[in-house]
What we know:
Layout: H1 3-22, H2 25-41, H3 43-54, H4 58-84, E1 87-89, E2 99-107, E3 110-114, H5 122-133, E4 137-141, H6 147-158, E5 167-169, H7 174-182, E6 192-196, H8 199-209, E7 216-219, E8 224-228, H9 234-246, E9 256-262, H10 266-278, H11 292-307, E10 311-315, E11 332-335, H12 342-345, E12 352-358, H13 361-369, E13 373-374, E14 376-380, H14 384-391, E15 398-401, E16 418-419, E17 422-423, H15 428-433, E18 436-444, H16 460-474, H17 477-491
Parallel strand pairs: 3-4, 3-6, 4-5, 6-7, 8-9, 8-14, 9-12, 11-12, 14-15
Antiparallel strand pairs: 1-2, 2-18, 7-17, 10-11, 13-16
Helix pairs in contact: 1-7, 2-4, 2-6, 3-4, 3-6, 4-5, 9-10, 16-17
Amino acid sequence: MTARDIGGVIENARAAQKIWEEKPYRERAACLKKAAGALASDMDCIVETIHGDNGKLPLDALAAELLPALLAMKYYLRRGKRFLAPRRIRGGSLLMFNKRSVLVHKPWGVVGIISPWNYPFSIPFSEVVMALLAGNAVLLKTASLTPRVGAALEKIFTAAELPPGLFNYVEMEGRNAGPAFIGTVRNPGVDKLFFTGSSAVGRELMALASPRLLPLVLELGGADAALVRADADLDRAAAGVVWAGFSNAGQSCGGVQRVIVHASVYGAFLEKLRSLTEKLRAGTDLGPMASVRQKQAVYRQLKECIAGGAVVSAISPGPGFEDQKSPDVPAVVLTGVKPDMPVMRDEVFGPVVAVIPAGDDEEALAIANASPYGLTGSVWSRNRRRARALASRINAGAVMVNDHLMSHGLAETPWGGFGASGLGRTHGESGFMEMLKTRVVVDDILPGVKRNLFWQPYSEKVFLGIKAIAEFASGGIGKKIRAIPPLFEIFFRYWKRE
């Protein structure tokens, strides 16, 4: 499609959205339940489609894409009505006793979703479901590397029998999608854009969106840290790092990249990690990368680390990074890394993990937070109280105790990061609310009121009365008592015509 094509799609989507927004929630949910049925009946085909498009192992496709999608659909169908319900705001002051404030929600209109190739099914699926249940129309652009997954998503939402033009799966070159979706001030595009991808592209989209002040939700890169304390269960920690670092061939923005281990257990942990890494079986436990180009990018980063003095302490069997014709890769564990190496300062989007010793929790925390990224993190410890305290100080949007990466599979938890890892949230109630504009409606419940206390005409009496309100609100007992007479005197102005 071209930008002109997208303009026509958006115009049709706006018309469909106006009809869709007026439907009661139960009717919108009924349509989405048909999509849920299509998903449940076609599971094997979807798993094979994901595997065929980006090389993800079938087990990873099932556990990290299909199952989270099924759980998310069930969660949002069940909770969506409550998320959309008006909410009364408790009064903040007795002096404004006559005001009742309610938050009400309204869909943005047309929501654009540009999704990545690393989790091509589960990431856009939840966003589309939330957008539709909230009353929006949707334009979905999946990654150019995974067009068959995009077609599978289109098939599922076609089964929902939505109004024509409401859900739109569009195919176009990735570099053209952002400008086409965003549009210009004179020819505006979507009303809100959700993008998952690299931090570099996220910055470009922010620049494109700024003339329109277009709201964005950006889920970007990560270089996430796992902190292994001295009291950790080292067997569980090592196994968790292997999964979070190497599943999906390390192509997970929320996976483990930096493992910071207490010096007293560093050697023991490294030995366990080395043993598990060297047992990984190519094609069974470790899949290929999504493209040779991505493999080449990771190889350049790996070579830079090694040239700077990093040591390959463990590597899984199978094709090496030197084979630049195949997307198959080994899992690599690096030690002896320095702060200026790519594995410490950048996102390495492949199966490469660095292990760094730390003298205590404070040093480990300093290393973890010395990164522009802040997507996820984890703490591994038998002392859960101390682990939670340490987790609360990690600069990341999602932090897990004795686990890593899996929070994206919990539909109820928000997903998103700090700094170079993006802005806004997807998933959970926070993600659902990103699909809505929020309005406050303030109602005056006092009967027969003619004017507010602070309306014209002004006078010294009005000034002293308003001052009495301020003193009553901010003063101690003595001030409050002295403020009562002028307060009482000005109170009856509510009903005066003057």
